[in-house]
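User: structure tokens for this one?
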Amino acid sequence: MRARGPNADDLRKLHAEATQIVNQKFLITTAAITVFGVLSAQMLSSQANLPGPGAGVGTGGAARQMMLGWAGFLGPALLNVVLLVLLFYSTILAGMLRVITTYLVETGASAWEGDWALYRRGGHLGYTRAQAVVFLVLSLVAGCYPVAFALVRGVRLGPSGAVTTHIAVAVVTLTVIAGLGLAGWPDLERKPDERWRRLFGGGRGETLGGGAA
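Assistant:
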């Protein structure tokens, strides 16, 4: 069965749906900043109430051996995990949006979407990349928190297992954010575009390339 294309009511519905998805992506960025602020305040408050090397542990060797502990790494790691979950959700929404926009291009219902797809091929700073920059900054700050905690409390970074785990989580988070938001992988446009072309029996003569919105 071949696809039939949209009518006027369908176009209004698709336009409303696409607008809602874009608004949700902006809300995700707002949520990320809000969660970051709340968790950061809690972490800073808890670390400020913990003793430093001069509080009941003496001086000299005992003070120098005092470590930050797993508690100082758990909060930043949790914050990075939350950022990843929010970004994955935003990526799913972007994929849903591409299903709609490629449909509009394939049916010839939106000249703008076709022109916009061509424009994106040359590289641009759209809202997906802008969102990724925000997430990268938040993740970088979260990654630096244990160092800041250790400096403020005057203790050493450790144990080594906590440091290694924290570095691994931070590197994975930054890599995934950069890949999804800046490098444009996966290509969210090609698969729905090719599927719509098959449903419409060939349609246009070329397939739209990737590029984040």
